[in-house]
Amino acid sequence: MNAVVYRGPREVAVQSVPDPISQAPTDAIVRLTTTALCGSDLHTYDGRTAATSGDVIGHEPLGIVEWVGSGVASIKRGDRVVIPTHANCAFCDNCERGYSGACLTVNPPNYGSAYGYAGMGTLVGAQAQMLRVPFADANCLIVPGEEGDDLEDDFVLLADAFVTGYHAATLGDVRPGSTVAVFGAGAVGLLAAYSALLIGAAEVYVVDGVDARLRIAEDLGAIPVDLRRGDPVEQIFEMRRRDRRAGPRGPSAEQMGGVMCAIDAAGFQARDRADMSKENPTQLIDDLARVVNPTGSIAMIGVWEPHDPHPVDADAGEGRFTVPWGTFFQKGVSVRFGRTHDERYNRTLRDLIVSGRAKPSRIVTQRLPLGSAPAAYDAFDRRAEGYVKVLFKPE
Ligand SMILES: NC(=O)c1ccc[n+]([C@@H]2O[C@H](COP(=O)([O-])OP(=O)(O)OC[C@H]3O[C@@H](n4cnc5c(N)ncnc54)[C@H](O)[C@@H]3O)[C@@H](O)[C@H]2O)c1
Ligand SMILES: [Zn+2]
Ligand SMILES: [Zn+2]
């Protein structure tokens, strides 16, 4: 089969690799009809993970079941399924408690796994024509309809981007009437904003410095904040001060001039606002601390690598960043982290898609053959205008 293979920093190729073969009676083999490109793949592409040449990458698959082992009960050949990024077993202590992103079975002795991501186990990547899925009963979510129909591009976002966006809103304790600021308008940040609006947030600000991304944020119903125009936290404070959408807030308006929920959707490669060619993750952490109101919540949904071979400084190489603990304590905020627990949300979000209440594919900008992967990675890595969420269609 053909697959996207990492060759080295900023080099991927589409090449022939061995077809997947089953390793256990609980496996399924799935023929992929759509597989997405994610900001997480860029951490690999940029040489910021332990990936080695020859690794098949990608982790956002949708397809048709081709084969199931004798130990698989809930799906059969021909079923249309979406597969969560983080493979899980459904029976370990963490899966049972609803923390499928920290499954203890799939990647021992570590916790949590992902297809095609260095440091997250040995599962082969999903930017390919076929995929082996372990514990298929736990990892294949059936979706209705037929391959290539008008929900194809919505369902593929259930593999990662939509569930991660929804997880961000959950970690950030977003409720009806909440005020929210999302930093980063990639697919994850946009779908975090969209999820917050689905939940009923009153005001959702989305910060980025790329026009096409800010336009989509606005189209979804969020308020775009262009970081190239100056400090985004000051911009949000100023907008809330003068915008009638903020509503009458009486004497508390000044003390509570930020938002109740701040979401990081940029991660450890966050850019410096003054010069977006440079990275400055500490500045992003400060912005989150400044924009959140006393008693609010911060959701860290971007990836923060514990080991970075090309860090901004020595501490960052070991996943250490300067954090204003004093501000957090003073404000009494909660800060929550981490990978999405796909299994908590994917059924609910599938049903919102099927009923027509959610259309996450509004953020999709490219639908390309798998063979275009090298050019698509290059454009997406440069955050080229118009490249927000790329879907590959393996032939
Ligand atoms: N927690 C999870 O389970 C999970 C799942 C998927 C992706 N992720 C992570 O989420 C992050 C976003 O993913 P994506 O696919 O949207 O990636 P992306 O690279 O397309 O989007 C990141 C966006 O952040 C913007 N940005 C950079 N610095 C910024 C700053 N200082 N302030 C505001 N915006 C800034 C960039 O311009 C870009 O638009 C990545 O780190 C990815 O690895 C986490
Ligand atoms: Zn992803
Ligand atoms: Zn498990």
Protein described:
With 395 residues, the chain is of the alpha/beta class. It has 2 domains: 2-160 and 341-393, Quinone Oxidoreductase, Chain A, domain 1, CATH 3.90.180; 164-337, Rossmann fold (3-Layer(aba) Sandwich). The chain has helices at 39-45, 93-96, 136-139, 152-155, 161-171, 187-199, 211-220, 232-242, 281-291, 314-317, 325-331, 342-354, 373-381; strands spanning 2-8, 11-16, 28-36, 61-68, 80-82, 130-133, 141-142, 179-183, 203-208, 223-226, 259-264, 292-300, 334-337, 366-369, 390-393. Strands 3, 4, 5, 6, 7, 14 and 15 form a 7-stranded mixed sheet that branches. Helix 9 links the parallel strand 11 and strand 12 (292-300). The protein is globular. The N and C termini lie close together (10 Å). The mean pLDDT is 96. It binds nicotinamide-adenine-dinucleotide and zinc ion (2 copies). One zinc ion binds next to loops.
Looking at CATH, the homologous superfamily of the largest domain is Medium-chain alcohol dehydrogenases, catalytic domain
Helicity, as a percent range: 25-40%
Return the CATH class of the largest domain. Answer: Alpha Beta
> What is the CATH-assigned architecture of the largest domain?
Alpha-Beta Complex
**Can you count the helices?**
13
In percent, how much strand structure appears in the residues? 15-25%
Structural class: alpha/beta
The number of E-state strands comes to 15
> pLDDT under 50 segments (min length 5)?
none
CA gyration radius, whole angstroms: 20 Å
Total domain units: 2
Shape: globular
Q: On the 0-100 scale, what is the average pLDDT?
A: 96
Q: Bound compounds, please?
A: nicotinamide-adenine-dinucleotide, zinc ion
Order of helices and strands: EEEHEEHEHEHHEHEHEHEHEHHEHEHE
CATH fold annotation of the largest domain: Quinone Oxidoreductase, Chain A, domain 1
Give the biggest sheet. Answer: 7 strands, mixed
End-to-end distance: 10 Å
